[in-house]
Amino acid sequence: xxxxxxxxxxxxxxxxxxxxxxxxxxxxxxxxxxxxxxxxxxxxxxxxxxxxxxxxxxxxxxxxxxxxxxxxxxxxxxxxxxxxxxxxxxxxxxxxxxxxxxxxxxxxxxxxxxxxxxxxxxxxxxxxxxxxxxxxxxxxxxxxxxxxxxxxxxxxxxxxxxxxxxxxxxxxxxxxxxxxxxxxxxxxxxxxxxxxxxxxxxxxxxxxxxxxxxxxxxxxxxxxxxxxxxxxxxxxxxxxxxxxxxxxxx
Length: 250
Hints:
4-stranded antiparallel sheet, 3 domains, 8 strands, globular, Alpha-Beta Plaits, Arc Repressor Mutant, subunit A, 44% helix, alpha+beta
């Protein structure tokens, strides 16, 4: 299983996605605004917006909040303009970090990220200092715990997918950067429930750390993702099964 899908599984085990409901709604509002700004307010023609709406409803975000965020993003409401940015840094042991944020105040965001990195044994990196360690990769998340893995793999592979990972009640499908939408559409046509489909990243050369240091990195990532402006963090840490089990109970 890849690092990112393992990290998603850990967060579900720890209940991180259900904590701090107001913070969760705020993050989804920002994602909705960005999606509407980039692709328009109609989810039938803006697939990214459609995916975010589905995830927002999955955490019981009120429809009025969803509509208001879309209106703001499309230019029809009050509110500061949202920016989608990526910051680069290092964690303990030299682990590379790419930190995606959605913010209306880049100075606030970078200050919070720098302070978190410094206090967690890491530091900021210059632009481009970390990004070269990753390749773009499509990630599709299929919801459902009783799916036939072989059937999913065959359906995905026929459309051009590279691999799949199985994580409890979800299957992660990995594609090349240009094949994402083709594979997504094929899986949807085959009746699979697509929870998320987006362009992500995979580390070119994952690195291994001693368990103690690896847990320090995971705690730093968790703290970063608890920041209001941070959407997600990618790293080149090799997340072993021992690390998954050890960190899930911390």
